């Protein structure tokens, strides 16, 4: 169980499970994974409960491969380690499932099929599609996810997806193999940072409807403690995405609209504010012409910014990459 069999099938579906303090649920999660999966990679992320040892002792599924980290790398580090091993073994699609029992393995095909059909490069769960079901989600987590989802839309550029912190995901191996693994956030921001990196690659991401499942598991994600950190990273990714997509990779008309909007808006605010302050100091009325210049500049800037936003929302990637990559760069057959 510590290593894959010598004869490795090519282009199989794999599941990657980051394992950290999941000993209460991991056996049930693995046992619920269906026959559509060829290999299950359980990554013991330096778990203090020795998840890897427990899996080797109590799980008798021959598909299971246990991978161990000597130092905790966070959920992102564990997932990326699983991706690398799966790609090396010849996986075509990798599905990431948490080991805490929140994700129903019976939904696997819903995540895999859009990728196999060439409709998506990456799929992710969305627990907000059914308003009746999300009542099961704790209120604080529900509100936090709504706020994080809006920030994620702006920073990642995927305006048509929701629930960015959902960790139930699937990715094509050709896309995963080209991720900048050294730059991706390895801990709680992992799923959102993945979306940002995928957008800079112009990968197609599709939401998969799923129900919220909460039982006796304990989440390590505390909304109140990560809002500030996440906001800072969202702002950073937003500006990086704009620079990558609108000034380095391409220069569409929206780039000019953004420059004009920021320039006119800044000029109007600075110009109008300075003259308002000067007039207040002189105890005199600001000339009507000065007011009009500032007003027209601000309003025009706002119009340009709205035009840019409209273009950005419509600019969500629509054409999957992995079919093109497969033709241009044939998959390497891994050594036995």
CATH fold-level topology of the largest domain: Spore Coat Polysaccharide Biosynthesis Protein SpsA, Chain A
Number of DSSP strands?
7
**If you compute it from the alpha carbons, what radius of gyration comes out, rounded to the nearest whole angstrom?**
24 Å
Kindly state the percentage of residues in helix.
40-55%
The strands making up the biggest β-sheet line up spatially as 3-2-1-4-6-5-7
- Discrete helix count: 11
Fourth CATH level, the homologous superfamily of the largest domain: Spore Coat Polysaccharide Biosynthesis Protein SpsA, Chain A
Protein described:
This protein starts with 11 loop residues before the first strand and ends in an 8-residue tail after the last helix. With 336 residues, the protein is an alpha/beta fold. 49% of the residues lie in helices and 12% in strands. α5 packs parallel to α8, α7 packs parallel to α8 and α9 runs antiparallel to α10. The protein is built from 11 helices and 7 strands. A 7-stranded mixed beta sheet has the order 3-2-1-4-6-5-7, with helices on both faces. The protein folds into 2 domains: 236 residues, Spore Coat Polysaccharide Biosynthesis Protein SpsA, Chain A (Alpha-Beta Complex), CATH 3.90.550; 64 residues.
Task: Give the topology.
Elements: E1 12-19, H1 26-31, E2 39-45, H2 51-58, E3 64-69, H3 74-89, E4 91-96, H4 108-116, E5 122-126, H5 139-156, E6 169-172, H6 173-176, H7 190-201, E7 205-209, H8 223-248, H9 253-282, H10 288-314, H11 322-328
Helix pairs in contact: 5-8, 7-8, 9-10
């Amino acid at each position: 169980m510590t290593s894959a069999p010598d004869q490795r099938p090519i282009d199989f579906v794999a599941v990657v499970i980051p394992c950290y303090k999941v000993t209460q649920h991991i056996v049930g999660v693995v046992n619920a994974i269906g026959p559509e999966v060829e290999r299950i990679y359980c990554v013991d992320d330096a778990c203090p409960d020795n998840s890897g040892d427990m899996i080797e002792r109590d799980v008798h599924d021959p598909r299971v491969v246990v991978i161990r980290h000597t130092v905790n790398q966070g959920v992102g580090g564990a997932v990326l380690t699983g991706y690398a091993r799966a790609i090396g073994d010849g996986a075509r699609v990798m599905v990431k499932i948490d080991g805490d029992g929140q994700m129903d393995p019976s939904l696997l095909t819903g995540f895999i099929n859009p990728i196999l059909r060439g409709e998506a490069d990456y799929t992710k769960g969305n627990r907000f599609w059914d308003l009746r079901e999300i009542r099961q989600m704790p209120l604080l987590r529900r509100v936090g996810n709504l706020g994080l989802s809006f920030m994620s839309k702006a920073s990642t550029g995927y305006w048509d997806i929701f629930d960015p912190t959902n960790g139930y995901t699937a990715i094509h191996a050709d896309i995963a193999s080209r991720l900048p693994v050294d730059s991706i956030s390895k801990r709680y921001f992992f799923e959102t940072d993945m979306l940002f990196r995928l957008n800079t690659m112009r990968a197609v991401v599709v939401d998969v409807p799923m129900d919220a499942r909460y039982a006796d598991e304990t989440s390590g994600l505390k909304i109140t403690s990560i809002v500030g950190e996440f906001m800072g990273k969202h702002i950073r990714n937003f500006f990086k995405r704009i620079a990558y997509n609108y000034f380095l990779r391409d220069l569409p008309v929206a780039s000019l609209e953004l420059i004009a909007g920021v320039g006119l808006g800044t000029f109007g605010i600075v110009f109008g504010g300075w003259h308002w302050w000067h007039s207040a100091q002189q105890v005199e009325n600001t000339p009507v012409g000065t007011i009009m210049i500032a007003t027209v500049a601000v309003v025009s800037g706002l119009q340009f910014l709205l035009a840019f936003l409209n273009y950005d929302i419509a600019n969500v990637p629509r054409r999957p990459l992995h079919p093109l990559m497969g033709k241009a760069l044939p998959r390497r057959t891994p050594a036995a």
